[in-house]
TrEMBL record:
The keyword Oxidoreductase applies. It is an enzyme of class 1 (oxidoreductase). PROSITE patterns: P5CR (PS00521). InterPro entries: 6-PGluconate_DH-like_C_sf (IPR008927), NAD(P)-bd_dom_sf (IPR036291), P5C_Rdtase_cat_N (IPR028939), P5CR-like_CS (IPR053790), P5CR_dimer (IPR029036), Pyrroline-COOH_reductase (IPR000304). Coiled coil: none annotated. Pfam families: F420_oxidored, P5CR_dimer. Its EC number is 1.5.1.2. Keywords: Amino-acid biosynthesis, Cytoplasm, NADP, Oxidoreductase, Proline biosynthesis. PANTHER family: PYRROLINE-5-CARBOXYLATE REDUCTASE, PYRROLINE-5-CARBOXYLATE REDUCTASE 3. It comes from Arthrobacter gandavensis. This is Pyrroline-5-carboxylate reductase.
C-alpha cells in the first residue's frame, strides 16, 4: 500500500527529491531508491531513521500496520515540526489514539486508501483530526490527488469506506478468479479464461468511471430480456449474491471496529 501511494504521489508530479522514505531493511531501501529516485533511509543502518525523516517534513505519512502506529508516532513525536501534518494510512486506528501519542495540537489526518492508487486510479477517503486546518486538509488532498479520487468524510464513516473501497479491489480480484475458474470448467484454456475475466472486469470498471455512469443502468443495458445475461443474473439473485456481498462488507466493517477496540483497550493503563 505504501509503495502504491508513493507511486501515485510521484505520478501526480510531486518532486522525488522532496521525498524521504524509511524502511526496515537496507536491501529494500536500495530497491526503492533505484525504482523511484527518492531518498530512502533504512532502520537496519540507522536506528533513528524515522526521526531523521520526520524532523524536516511538512507532511509525515505513517504507513505501518495498525498495531505499530502508536509506537511509530511516539518515536517521531519529539522531532516533528510544530506545523507538520501527520497522515495515517493504517486501517482501524482512530484519530483519538493518534492525537494522544503526539504533542497537543498536532494536525492529524486519517485516511483510507486502496491499492489502485499505484495506477492513479485509487480512491482515498480522509477524515481530519480536531487540530487539522482547512489548509492542511487541502494540502493533503492535493498531495494524494495523483493517486486518484480523494474524498473527505467523517471519521465514523471510515469503516464503511474501508468495506467498500479499501477492501473492494480484493472483491473484484475474487470475482475475476471465480469467473476464470468457471470459464475453464466450461472448456476454455485456463490462461485464456483468466485473461477474459481480467480484461472484462477492467473494461467494465473503465465504463463505470465515465462521468455520470450508473452501475444499475449499465447492467440493464447488457441484460436483454430472456437472454443469456438475464439467465446468469437470475441465478445470482436466486442464490442471494447481493446479500452475500452485503454480509461480507459488514464483516469487513465489523472487523475494523474490533481492531479499533483492541487498540484502544491496549493503551489503557
Amino acid at each position: 500500500m505504501n509503495e502504491a501511494i508513493l507511486g501515485g504521489i510521484l505520478a501526480g508530479g510531486f518532486p522525488p527529491e522532496l521525498i524521504t522514505a524509511t524502511v526496515r531493511r537496507s536491501e529494500r531501501a536500495g530497491q526503492l531508491r533505484e525504482r523511484h529516485g527518492i531518498t530512502v533511509l533504512a532502520e537496519s543502518e540507522d536506528a533513528g531513521a524515522n526521526r531523521t525523516a520526520a524532523e524536516s517534513a511538512d507532511v509525515v505519512i505513517i504507513g505501518v500496520k495498525p498495531v505499530g502506529v502508536r509506537a511509530m508516532l511516539e518515536d517521531v513525536a519529539a522531532t516533528l515540526r510544530p506545523e507538520a501534518v501527520v497522515v495515517s494510512v493504517a486501517a482501524a486506528v482512530p484519530l483519538e489514539l493518534m492525537e494522544a501519542a503526539l504533542p497537543a495540537g498536532t494536525q492529524v489526518i486519517r485516511t483510507m486508501p486502496n491499492t489502485p492508487a499505484k495506477l492513479g486510479r485509487g480512491v482515498t477517503a480522509l477524515a481530519p483530526g480536531s487540530a487539522a486546518t482547512a489548509d492542511s486538509v487541502k494540502l493533503v488532498r492535493s498531495l494524494l490527488s495523483g493517486t486518484g479520487r480523494v474524498f473527505e468524510v467523517r471519521e465514523d464513516q471510515i469503516n464503511a469506506v474501508g468495506s467498500v473501497s479499501g477492501s473492494g479491489p480484493a472483491y473484484a480480484f475474487y470475482l475475476a478468479e471465480a469467473m476464470a475458474k468457471a470459464g475453464a470448467d466450461l472448456g476454455l484454456d485456463p490462461e485464456l479464461a483468466a485473461l477474459l475475466a481480467a480484461e472484462t472486469i477492467a473494461g467494465a470498471g473503465a465504463m463505470l468511471a465515465e462521468p455520470e455512469a450508473d452501475a444499475a443502468a449499465l447492467r440493464k443495458a447488457v441484460t436483454s430480456p430472456n437472454g443469456t445475461t438475464e439467465a446468469a443474473i437470475g441465478v445470482f439473485d436466486a442464490r442471494g449474491l447481493p446479500g452475500i456481498i452485503a454480509g461480507g462488507m459488514h464483516a469487513a466493517a465489523d472487523r475494523s471496529a474490533e481492531i479499533t477496540a483492541g487498540l484502544s483497550a491496549a493503551r489503557q493503563p
